[in-house]
Amino acid sequence: MIGITGASGSVYGVRLTEILLSMGYSVHLVISNAGWRVLKEELDWTASSREEMLDGHFGSLPGKLVYHSFSDIGASIASGSFRVKAMIIIPCSMGTLANIAGGISANLMTRAADVMIKEERKLVIVPRETPLHAIHLENMLKLAHMGVSIIPAMPAFYYRPQTLEDAVDFVVGKVLDILDIEHHLFERWGE
């Protein structure tokens, strides 16, 4: 399950979705209203026909994409009885992170994250904000204490990325690492 919020860096969520679908995984996708706005601003995606846009971008990949409306609080992924391996919110805004840390389930994304925590399933948060203030850090620490994996969108440079796509793939690769999914998105130290 992937959530894309209104934080800058929507390319991270799109790239992770592409990779998982290309590997044949089923991906349940939730995009916040602000996430759609950022997709438009950063990647020129239009939000007027959301399902058509998603099908045009991801439809040729072998995996199965299931899109859930951000406001559909009754969707399958809102229930603890729905089996899912992991949820990744990439990028994750500080507002979404704060709602999850506070147990506020006001929309499908935060409800699904709440379910992942209560069912003790893998929840990965990829915050994308700078600079960070004490409340941001306290919310991340609170979630880390609950077993949530926090992977800030911080690319490395030891492998000498040549393009922006290389830097994006490093962050996406770190998410795949924590999910124990084999990949070759970046050169590992010592390889």
Automatic annotation (TrEMBL):
The gene is ubiX. The keyword Transferase applies. One of its GO terms (molecular function) is flavin prenyltransferase activity. The lineage of its organism: Bacteria, Bacillati, Bacillota, Bacilli, Bacillales. FMN binds at residues 6-8, 32, 93-96, 128. Residues 2-178 form the Flavoprotein domain. This is Flavin prenyltransferase UbiX. Pfam families: Flavoprotein (PF02441). It comes from the Bacteria. Flavin prenyltransferase that catalyzes the synthesis of the prenylated FMN cofactor (prenyl-FMN) for 4-hydroxy-3-polyprenylbenzoic acid decarboxylase UbiD. The prenyltransferase is metal-independent and links a dimethylallyl moiety from dimethylallyl monophosphate (DMAP) to the flavin N5 and C6 atoms of FMN. Its EC number is 2.5.1.129. Dimethylallyl phosphate binds at residues 158, 174. It catalyses: dimethylallyl phosphate + FMNH2 = prenylated FMNH2 + phosphate. Keywords: Flavoprotein, FMN, Prenyltransferase, Transferase. HAMAP family: ubiX_pad. NCBIfam families: PRK06029.1 (NF004685), ubiX_pad (TIGR00421). Belongs to the UbiX/PAD1 family. Coiled coil: none annotated.
